[in-house]
Amino acid sequence: MSDSTRTLITVDKKAAQAIRGSKSTGSDKVVGGISHVVLAIWSIIVILPLLWTLLSSFKTSKEVLASPFGLPADWNFNNYVTAWVQNNFGGMFLNTIIVVGFSLVFVMVLGAMCAYVLARFSVPGSRIIYYLMLAGLTFPVFLAIVPLFFVLQGIGLLGTLPGLIITYVAFALPFTVFFLYSFFQALPNEIQEAAYVDGASEWRTFFQVMLPMAKPGLAAVAILNFLGLWNQFLLPVALNPQADQYVLSQGLAAYASSAGYRIDFGGLFASVVITIVPVLIAYIFFQRQLQGSVTQGTSK
Q: Are 54 and 71 in contact (CB under 8 A)?
């Protein structure tokens, strides 16, 4: 093959690569533009209702009905004071913090320990236990309401915060084990063996070596569990009938349905803001951990 022929072939290859590069760049721009438009529309759909709820929480009922999309005439916190004090949202907020806090701690500790054992040890029946955990994810909550009601009534925990905590832990445990199983399974065996060589016990190896290595997964499942437990509605409504033990979700529903057409819309919107603000704060605070866990899981 002559030098001129080789030169022509090289030029043709470079031209073909340039054409492919320009085509891929153009298609990437189109995909990127469409993605940005879809994200912008989705952001508007999500943000506008939140903004409308926030503005309405500073209005009176007359203002909400007369000008639902206008700005409030007076920016005051009377609706928040009314919701917090007179409607006992302060007490319900405390009940929710207690129930969700204890449930989250218990389910994270138990779920991490269970996922670690199932992923790292050859326990007889471990696969069956794991598949039963997966089956728990598909079990509808409403089918368990009646059995749970009589079980909690039989042990004297119906209508109590401890009974609600136990129920929350039971329903959040399968998802926690399923989520953390892959994280513990992907951890290198060499580190666990090195801990054994250094004389670490099983408990010390788990809590001081393996558990910190699964921190991204723990942070992700913690925020997801927090969102699910905080917004839980069916379980507290069915299993927590005492008004002084209400959590925010059932208290908000009771407040919305108690006054009928004479409801205080400003107080209702203030109650909604009180309910959703902790969730937004928690998500913003743990957002980096959640993104990091997704990136780590993708790289693995």
A: no
8 Å CB contact between 271 and 255: yes
- 41 CB neighbour count, 10 Å cutoff: 10
> Of the candidates 52, 101, 148, 110, which has an alpha carbon nearest to the alpha carbon of residue 247?
101
pLDDT in tens, 20-69: 554 456 677 788 888 888 988 988 888 888 898 888 888 888 888 888 88
- C-alpha distances in Å from residue 77, one per residue of 52, 145, 292: 16, 39, 38
The residue among 175, 173, 181 whose CA lies nearest residue 214 is: 181
Q: What is the dihedral of CA 81, 86, 91, 92, to 10 degrees?
A: -90
Give the DSSP letter string of 278-296. Answer: HHHHHHHHHHHHHHHHHHH
Neighbours of 88 (CB within 10 A): 17
In a 13 Å sphere around the CA of 170, the CA atoms on its Cβ side amount to: 13
Distance from the Cα of residue 38 to its chain's centroid = 23
264 close to 89: Cβ distance less than 8 angstroms: no
Q: CA dihedral in degrees (30, 33, 34, 37; nearest 10)?
A: -170
